[in-house]
Model the fold of this input.
Amino acid sequence: MRSDACCDSSVWRGAAAGALGGLLGSTAMVGFNHLLAATGFGRDDLGARKQHRRVDAKPNDTDGTIADEPASMKAASNLAEAVTGEPLGERGKRIGGPIAHHAFGAAAGALYGAVVARVPELARGAGAPYGGLVWLAGAEIGVPLSGLSRSPAAYPPARHAASFATHLVFGLTVEGVRRMLTRNDGRRR
Done:
């Protein structure tokens, strides 16, 4: 039987490894979107915001959500407005959006790493199921409910598919990094 100190230590190590995985996974999502764009995927779906940018990446070039304007940019601007009384300009959104996206990725990765440290069976699927969960809970439900995008029904199926794929990349990256950093924790994960 493991002591509480041991369990707490593995949970913290799992959370730290997951957070790093979440940061890297958030970056991998953006790279994957650019890879999709290079294949010509979604070229006919230009969206409403900055149409010349919509062909650069699918579903959008910042955070993998379905919205025309990346949800992370809207969230950063909303936060800035709540704190300062002024929304972010375009430059501020270009800076704040990726910060918000990576912060969310780090938090989601930390949660995953901590939970898997306690319930290793949840790592089955190499993180892909968790990526799918983040897509469903975050991109498809949470983002529209928070007003950061229109209803999911307002977007074409290809945009949902691309968003799902980018979130699978996120989950796979989080688990890969977590597994690499915690492999010497004394039990199989």
Summary: Confidence is low (pLDDT under 50) at residues 45-58.
